[in-house]
Write a structure and sequence with these properties.
Blueprint lengths: L1 E10 L2 E11 L4 E6 L5 H9 L6 E6 L2 E2 L5 H6 L2 E4 L11 H8 L8 H11 L1 H5 L10 H13 L5 E5 L7 H16 L3 E5 L3 H7 L2 E6 L2 E7 H6 L1 H8 L2
Parallel strand pairs: 3-8, 3-9, 6-7, 7-8
Antiparallel strand pairs: 1-2, 1-4, 4-5, 9-10
Helix pairs in contact: 3-6
């Protein structure tokens, strides 16, 4: 579904990604793990078109998307939930969801919003509430719901558990699993490597902008070097 081949990305003179290659197959949850600054979020921003690679190729559904504007990428079904949620704080829950529908036919918005409310009953209860007054967990649900309004076939999630209490982290990961089981392919960036690997099919380990290891999640969970570096005791 998604194939990234030898991309190099720079921030000014800083070489952030070095010949990074990976793929995501239809129906999978694939996770990118690594320390802060390893390049995980940079990869998602580059795939989304928010950053441009200096070299290399990015293909989605067998079409190259390197040069496409971000909203064209979203319209094709490749959608990102940004780190830090990035919801519209002064707008209502419903208005946030409507903004997520921007690239889709207007006549289908009600149906897609009903689907989001079925997945997230809490958002239905708070549909008229100002988004900035929601709890952290509710804001993350809203960010995911807004992305679902774009009808993604591949959903990229950047640090969805950041800043959440442990019980809310479990809820968010349950939601990710449910989305995948309903047919949404997932590319997950997550600092909580153990949780990410517990639900993913495969994983890629990044260090200073390079992919250094790739394997099934079970193999990565059993890898002593990965365990020491990212999973703790």
């Amino acid at each position: 579904m998604l194939t990234v081949t030898d991309i190099n990305v720079f921030y000014g003179n800083i070489h952030a990604l070095h010949n990074v290659s990976f793929d995501v197959r239809e129906g999978e949850i694939v996770t990118l793990i690594g320390a802060n600054g390893a390049g995980k979020s940079t990869i998602l921003k580059t795939v989304s078109g928010l950053l441009r690679c200096k070299s290399g190729t990015i293909s989605f559904l067998e079409s190259e998307i390197n040069s496409l504007k971000t909203y064209h990428i979203v319209k094709r079904g490749l959608v990102q939930v940004a780190e830090g949620r990035r919801i519209f704080l002064r707008m209502t829950v419903q208005q946030n969801l409507e903004m997520g529908s921007y690239t889709q036919p207007r006549g289908t918005m009600h149906e897609r919003m009903e689907d989001v409310f079925n997945r997230f009953p809490r958002l239905l209860e708070r549909r008229k509430q100002i988004a900035g007054t929601l709890s952290g967990g509710e804001q993350q649900m809203l960010a995911i719901g807004r992305a679902l309004m774009s009808s993604p076939t591949l959903l990229m999630l950047d640090e969805p558990s950041m800043g959440l209490a442990p019980i809310l982290v479990e809820q968010i990961f349950d939601i990710i699993k449910e989305l995948n089981e309903s047919g949404v392919t997932i590319l997950l960036v997550e600092q909580n490597a153990r949780m990410a690997l517990s639900i993913a099919h495969r994983g890629y380990v990044l260090e200073t902008g390079r992919v250094v290891t790739t394997a099934s999640s079970s193999e990565l969970l059993a890898d002593e070097a990965v365990h020491r570096a990212y999973l703790g005791k």
